Automatic annotation (TrEMBL):
Keyword Isomerase recorded: no
Residue intervals of the Gfo/Idh/MocA-like oxidoreductase N-terminal domain: 4-121
Family membership: Belongs to the Gfo/Idh/MocA family.
Catalytic activity: D-xylose + NADP(+) = D-xylono-1,5-lactone + NADPH + H(+); (1R,2R)-1,2-dihydrobenzene-1,2-diol + NADP(+) = catechol + NADPH + H(+)
Domain GFO/IDH/MocA-like oxidoreductase per the UniProt entry, residue ranges: 132-247
Key words of the record: Oxidoreductase
UniProt cross-references to InterPro entries, sorted A to Z: Gfo/Idh/MocA-like_OxRdtase_N, Gfo/Idh/MocA_domain, GFO_IDH_MocA-like_dom, NAD(P)-bd_dom_sf
Catalytic activity, EC: 1.1.1.179, 1.3.1.20
PANTHER family: OXIDOREDUCTASES, TRANS-1,2-DIHYDROBENZENE-1,2-DIOL DEHYDROGENASE
UniProt GO molecular function: D-xylose 1-dehydrogenase (NADP+) activity; nucleotide binding; trans-1,2-dihydrobenzene-1,2-diol dehydrogenase activity
Presence of the UniProt keyword Magnesium in the record: no
Protein name as catalogued: Trans-1,2-dihydrobenzene-1,2-diol dehydrogenase
Length: 334
């Protein structure tokens, strides 16, 4: 049986997700419904992507009995509220990153998923890429010896995009792109909590972070260094340096196709899209869709590639970085 998907939100990421789905066998995946707050938008999206049903509210999707998995692709200020709607309705959920606005909201989502015995995953699609699987394999067999230092960069000029700069829309570099650098570090260090976090950054007039540098220290004198910015383009690569060599993920590190292991280059090409994409390498969203299907077939309630404990820790680290840099959202006092 095909996994029947319901998409929540008819924006840019849902478009790319739909295009990526077309690269998977139709017998395995089917987008059955698109839901938007505007029925007109939902119908337009459905026509464009050949989706049989369109809803003009999220509640209709929550009440649809013929859906196996809901993909939440709305603005992240809405993730908590919309996520709870689906989880309480007994729906399995794949929710876009960042999972929510702070760790309190994330813990709320996790607890609700457990209470309702449904699947929940934060859509850190990077974790599902074949290249990331190879990185994990190399680390497991200590191909670079003992890891001493990890660094990750992500800079993308986004100051012209309202959702990147406005506080009410959950703006800032950290929640949008810094999350990718931090999740990479946590993957390398197996979800271990850092012993210390030091962050410094500069804010926009709107009160969100424009550029941030984070240094984390882990047990056994291991370090991580992350830089992210919505003002400038950076190399967007990630490096794992060990006592016997290094692994470099070439940019874009969040959806990569080239890995350099001790100087040797390896390629992991992606399928071509049948429609123009909004974001880099978006056909790679197919990997997280397939990961979710495999989890459902095995009866799992979370993904071993992006466990809920990693999502909670990731958000706790982001809360601490925001505290040090001085970014406060209205959701923090609710």
């Amino acid at each position: 049986m095909a996994t029947r998907w319901g998409l929540c939100g008819a924006g840019k990421i849902s478009h790319d997700f739909s295009v990526a789905m077309k690269t998977l066998p139709p017998g395995d995946h089917q987008i059955a419904v698109i839901a938007s707050r505007s029925l007109e938008r939902a119908k337009e999206f459905a026509n464009r992507h050949g989706i049989p049903k369109a809803y003009g509210s999220y509640e209709e999707l929550a009440n649809d009995p013929d859906i196996d998995m809901v993909y939440v692709g709305v603005l992240h200020t809405e993730h908590w509220r919309v996520g709870l709607l689906f989880l309480k309705a007994g729906k399995n959920v794949l929710c876009e990153k960042p999972f929510a606005m702070n760790s309190r909201q994330v813990k709320d989502l996790v607890a609700t998923a457990k209470k309702n015995n449904v699947f929940l995953m934060e859509a850190i699609w990077s974790r599902c890429f074949p290249l990331y699987a190879e990185v994990r394999r190399l680390l497991a067999e200590e191909a670079v010896g003992e890891v001493k230092l990890v660094k990750a960069y992500f800079g993308s000029p986004q100051l012209h995009i309202p959702r990147s700069v406005e506080k009410e829309l959950g703006g800032g570099a950290l929640l949008d792109i810094g999350v990718y650098c931090l999740q990479f570090v946590l993957m390398v260090f197996n979800g271990e909590r850092p012993e210390s976090i030091q962050a410094t950054g500069v804010l926009l007039d709107s009160g969100v972070d424009e550029s941030v540098v984070v240094v984390m220290k882990f047990s056994r004198n291991r370090m991580a260094f992350c830089t992210f910015s919505i003002a400038v383009r950076l190399p967007n690569d990630a490096v794992i340096a060990g006592t016997k060599g290094s692994v470099k993920v070439l940019g874009p590190m969040h959806c990569p196709t080239t890995l350099v292991v001790n100087g040797k280059e390896l390629e992991y090409p992606l399928p071509e899209p049948d429609l123009p994409l909004n974001f880099d390498n978006s056909t790679g969203l197919r990997f997280e869709a397939e990961e979710v299907r495999q989890c459902l077939l095995k009866g799992l309630k979370e993904s071993p590639r992006m466990p809920l404990a990693d999502s909670v820790l990731l958000t706790e680290i982001m809360d601490e970085i925001r505290k040090q840099v001085g970014v406060v959202f209205s959701q923090d006092s609710q």
